[in-house]
Amino acid sequence: MQAGRCIRWSGPAVGDGMSIDGGIRVWTFTLVDSGVLVRTEENWNGTQVETDVPTSTRCLGAGLEAWLANLRTAAERLEHGCAAPVGQIFRIGVDGVS
Known about the structure:
By secondary structure, the chain is an alpha+beta fold. 39% of the residues lie in helices and 37% in strands. The chain has one domain. It has 3 helices and 3 strands, in the order E-E-E-H-H-H. Residues 88-98 have low confidence and may be disordered.
């Protein structure tokens, strides 16, 4: 882990039709010529996740897409001088699988 380049969080999550007993999420941020490259890594476990892998995989993809869209929205708002708190932006659509 490097301060300012990576965030990590873990714990259970309950979303729309999906229950995750435990998950580990790591996001790494790398400065590139066109902006910031965000890489995500996730690991989920739990009975439902392990029993229905296709649904879990779809939920993981949808959750990552929502998080990344919210992250981009927050970054672009800050870039354009909007003062909306980032936490408010991240709560949009995050009540599902995260």
